[in-house]
C-alpha cells in the first residue's frame, strides 16, 4: 500500500484526507496496471515522483479565474485525476473533463471519479471527435509532440485559455519545430521532478 502521508509538499496546503485519497489512487493504479498497462510497469515502483509529483505541479500554474479544465489522452489519470483530487480540497470551483479513447482506461477513470467523488466527467472518444470543450485550461502528459498538441489544444481551448504541457529534456527542440506551423506564446518553468525537463504554459495559439 502506498499510504498518504507526505505525498505532497506542505506548501500545497492540502489536507491529510486529500493525501490519503492520493495514496488510494496510486494503489489502484499499481493494481490495474498489471491488467491494462495504465502506466509503464517499469515506473510502478516510482509512482510518487515519476507520476504524482509531475502531475501535481500543473495546478500551481492554473489561474484563479480558471473553472473548466480539459485533460486530453488521460490514460491512467496523470495528470487529471491527481489534479482533480487536490482541487477537491483547494480549488473546488474547477470542473474537469477527461478525454480518453481507450475504453478500458476510460472505465478505470470513471471508477476513480465515482470512488473519489470528483468534479469530473470522462469522455471515451478520440480527441478530434469531441466537440470543442471551450476549456480555460487544456493539459496533456506524454501524449504527443508539441506541434500535434497545439492542434488539439487550439480545438478545445477557450479564447483566453492556456495549455499546460509537461515536457522532457527535448522541449526546446519541440518548441522550435512547433513554431514552423504555429504562432504561440510560451513560458517554460523547470520541472519539479526531472532535471532539464520543463512545464510549458502556452497561450494565444494560432496557425502560422
Overview in brief:
The protein has 208 residues and is an alpha/beta fold.
Give the helices and strands, then pairings.
Blueprint: H1 16-36, H2 47-56, E1 68-72, H3 80-90, E2 95-99, H4 103-116, E3 120-123, E4 135-139, H5 146-156, E5 157-167, H6 171-178, E6 182-190, E7 198-207
Parallel strand pairs: 1-2, 1-4, 2-3, 4-5
Antiparallel strand pairs: 5-7, 6-7
Helix pairs in contact: 1-3, 1-4, 5-6
Largest sheet: 7 strands, mixed
Shape: globular
Indicate the percent of residues in helices: 25-40%
> How much β-strand is present in the residues?
15-25%
Task: Explain what you see.
- The chain has 208 residues and is of the alpha/beta class.
- It contains 6 helices and 7 strands; from the N terminus they run ααβαβαββαβαββ.
- Strands 3-2-1-4-5-7-6 form a 7-stranded mixed beta sheet.
- A hairpin with a 7-residue loop joins strand 6 (182-190) and strand 7.
- Helix 1 (16-36) packs antiparallel against helix 3, helix 1 (16-36) packs antiparallel against helix 4 (103-116) and helix 5 packs across helix 6.
- The chain is globular and about 45 Å long.
Amino acid at each position: 500500500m502506498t499510504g498518504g502521508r507526505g505525498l505532497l509538499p506542505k506548501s500545497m496546503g492540502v489536507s491529510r484526507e486529500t493525501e490519503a485519497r492520493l495514496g488510494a489512487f496510486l494503489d489502484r493504479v499499481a493494481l490495474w496496471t498489471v491488467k491494462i498497462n495504465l502506466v509503464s510497469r517499469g515506473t510502478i515502483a516510482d509512482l510518487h515522483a515519476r507520476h504524482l509529483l509531475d502531475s501535481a505541479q500543473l495546478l500551481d500554474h492554473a489561474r484563479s479565474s480558471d473553472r473548466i479544465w480539459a485533460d486530453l489522452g488521460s490514460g491512467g489519470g496523470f495528470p487529471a485525476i491527481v489534479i482533480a483530487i487536490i482541487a477537491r480540497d483547494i480549488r473546488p470551483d474547477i470542473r474537469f473533463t477527461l478525454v480518453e479513447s481507450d475504453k478500458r482506461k476510460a472505465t478505470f477513470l470513471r471508477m476513480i471519479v465515482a470512488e473519489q467523488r470528483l468534479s469530473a466527467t470522462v469522455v471515451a472518444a478520440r480527441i478530434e471527435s469531441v466537440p470543442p470543450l471551450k476549456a480555460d485550461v487544456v493539459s496533456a502528459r506524454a501524449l504527443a509532440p508539441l506541434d500535434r498538441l497545439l492542434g488539439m489544444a487550439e480545438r478545445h481551448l477557450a479564447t483566453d485559455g492556456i495549455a499546460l504541457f509537461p515536457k522532457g529534456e527535448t522541449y526546446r527542440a519541440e518548441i522550435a519545430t512547433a513554431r514552423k506551423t504555429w504562432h504561440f506564446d510560451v513560458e517554460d518553468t523547470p520541472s519539479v521532478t526531472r532535471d532539464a525537463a520543463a512545464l510549458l504554459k502556452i497561450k494565444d495559439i494560432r496557425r502560422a
